[in-house]
Amino acid sequence: MVEPIDPYAGFTFRGEPVVIDQAYQDDKLSCIGLNPERYGSFIDPSFFIGFGIRAGAAAGISAEGNINMLSRIVQHRPLALGEPLTPCGEISSVEPVPRGRRICTDAWFEGDDGERAVSVPRESLKPDLSLEKRGAGERPPPVVDDATSLQLLGEYTLTPEATCHYSTEGNAIHYEMEAANKAGFRAPIIGGGMGVHFLLEVLWPEQGLSLVDLSIYFRRPIFWDDTFTVGLSPERDAAALVRDGKVLTEARINQLEVN
Length: 259
Hints:
CATH superfamily: Hotdog Thioesterase
Low-confidence stretches: none
CATH class: Alpha Beta
Order of helices and strands: EEHHEEEEEEHHHEEEE
Structural class: alpha+beta
Largest sheet: 12 strands, antiparallel
Number of helices: 5
Number of domains: 1
Distance between the termini: 40 Å
CATH architecture: Roll
Mean pLDDT: 93
């Protein structure tokens, strides 16, 4: 175990190679009600949001209590199941906000050729529970202005058991009631990457995607027992998870290229 350190701009890390194989992908996707066969011999790149966080934690940047605010997935090329990919990252900024600190991290995974295979930069809130103030800095404008305009493509109901089985990144707000309540939530909330699986599921064609570029915004918490729908915009340039007419997580579709 690495001694935890206080995050600072300029901190870099490089971890041990990560391997997502067929058994792992099948287990994690099927436990939350998704069909892993959709991806064939390729990896759902949503996994690398969580793996990027875990790589930072292994280097000493604790994920405990942190809340994902926005992220991006750029799959630079197809990702084969069983392929070792090396996590790398750098904290680009740490800014004080009323509720704590807002941390920007560039994280990516390299193939054996040393080139980026997938990039998952993110901005997260590290709350200071001693502060009673609200606010985490500037909020990007909504991608989906009107949730009722979305073409609804599926409905899902989460369970605490499935959420706990999926969650492995070392942040107790995703699987412990006491930690979630202490952070101000009525119940544990799912990790951002877990929610993105539901968005990729409706965007992934039968032949697969060679390039993916999504900007992802985590607007509202998704609780471990929530029911939500997945929708696609009429222009097919955005997708969102929606509950009671409100957007929970949304993605701007910057680019998709079919294999």
